[in-house]
Specification:
151 residues, alpha+beta, four-stranded antiparallel beta sheet, 38% helix
């Protein structure tokens, strides 16, 4: 069960996971020992799934972000799993969601430019016999980017 202190700890860690337990304790109004126990429990319970550094794609030359909706031809479990595997393996795909509605998947693709996106489309989508159709939308401006859950 996650209580209010856990929520404050999670909120602080989502803003900065490099805090010492002493700094974290000061922010959330607890002791360093309590914070350490709680953070370790939250990690062990799978509430905290990873401690990562977010990197600006533009800093790595990936200046084009494309949102792609994908509709599969057949929705057999093995074919859906094949598509999931292919998207996990595609280095250009930074996020992939299986969704409800008109499309089956939404992809967030980060590439250098339109030519690189064209290569992605030709090698990852056109070559997949289970992709019925896809639509792509080029992101013009990143208005909000908060890869965190409100706690």
């Amino acid at each position: 069960m996650i209580d209010d202190l856990d929520r404050r700890i999670l909120g602080a860690l989502q803003r900065n996971n490099r805090l010492s337990f002493s700094e974290l304790a000061d922010l959330v109004g607890s002791s360093a020992a309590s914070c350490m126990r709680r953070v370790n429990r939250l990690r062990a319970d799978g509430v905290v799934t990873a401690d990562i550094s977010l990197v600006d794609p533009k800093a790595l030359g990936k200046s084009l972000t494309v949102v792609v909706t994908v509709e599969l031809d057949r929705e057999r479990l093995d074919l859906v799993d094949d598509f999931k595997r292919a998207m996990r393996a595609a280095k250009e795909v930074t996020q992939c969601y299986m969704i409800t509605g008109d499309a089956d998947f939404v992809l967030i693709v980060a590439v250098e430019d339109v030519e690189a996106f064209d290569v992605f489309v030709k090698t990852k989508l056109y070559t997949n016999p289970n992709v019925r159709k896809f639509k792509s939308m080029i992101a013009l401006d990143r208005v909000k980017f908060e890869p965190r859950v409100l706690v």
